């Protein structure tokens, strides 16, 4: 069983920053073999992909609307993936989910952490 536990969400003013963390664990779960990513879902909207980082950390992909503001990174020694979010906007308000997958299909999802950006 794989567990992904997000933390670091909260309430922040527009223009502020937050850093989300996702700690991964599980019996026989080799974190360094998995591509990791972040999705979010705002109220009344579909879940959307935000960013992904390959197993080695050598490659990243971002949703266009967060490029230059959000940075995904990972620490394989700590089994943790991060999402640094800067210049936050009210439209970034959503529940943020951590995901893991061997391929581009994400097999494992966290429970989510709420991010609220006030104007």
What can you tell me about this protein's structure?
Helix content is 0%, strand content 53%. The protein is built from no helices and 11 strands. The strands form 2 sheets. Strands 2, 4, 5, 6, 9, 10 and 11 form a 7-stranded mixed beta sheet that branches. A 4-stranded antiparallel beta sheet has the order 1-3-8-7, with no helix packed on it. The N and C termini lie far apart (40 Å).
Identify the notable features of this structure and list them briefly:
119 residues, mainly beta, seven-stranded mixed beta sheet, four-stranded antiparallel beta sheet, 11 strands, globular
Largest sheet: 7 strands, mixed
So how many helices? 0
**What sequence of helices (H) and strands (E) makes up the elements?**
EEEEEEEEEEE
Shape: globular
User: Which class best fits the helix and strand makeup?
Assistant: mainly beta
**N/C terminus separation:** 40 Å
Uncertain residue segments: none
Strand content: over 45%
């Amino acid at each position: 069983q794989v567990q992904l536990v997000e933390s670091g969400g909260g309430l922040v003013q527009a223009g502020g920053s937050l850093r989300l963390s996702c700690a991964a664990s599980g019996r026989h779960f080799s974190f360094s073999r998995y591509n990791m990513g972040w999705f979010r879902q705002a109220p009344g909207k579909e879940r959307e992909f935000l960013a992904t980082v390959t197993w080695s950390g050598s490659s990243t992909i971002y949703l266009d609307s967060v490029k230059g503001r959000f940075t995904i990174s990972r620490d394989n020694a700590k089994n943790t993936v991060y999402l640094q979010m800067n210049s936050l906007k009210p439209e970034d308000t959503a529940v943020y989910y951590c995901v893991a997958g061997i391929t581009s299909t994400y097999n494992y999802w966290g429970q989510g952490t709420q991010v609220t950006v006030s104007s």
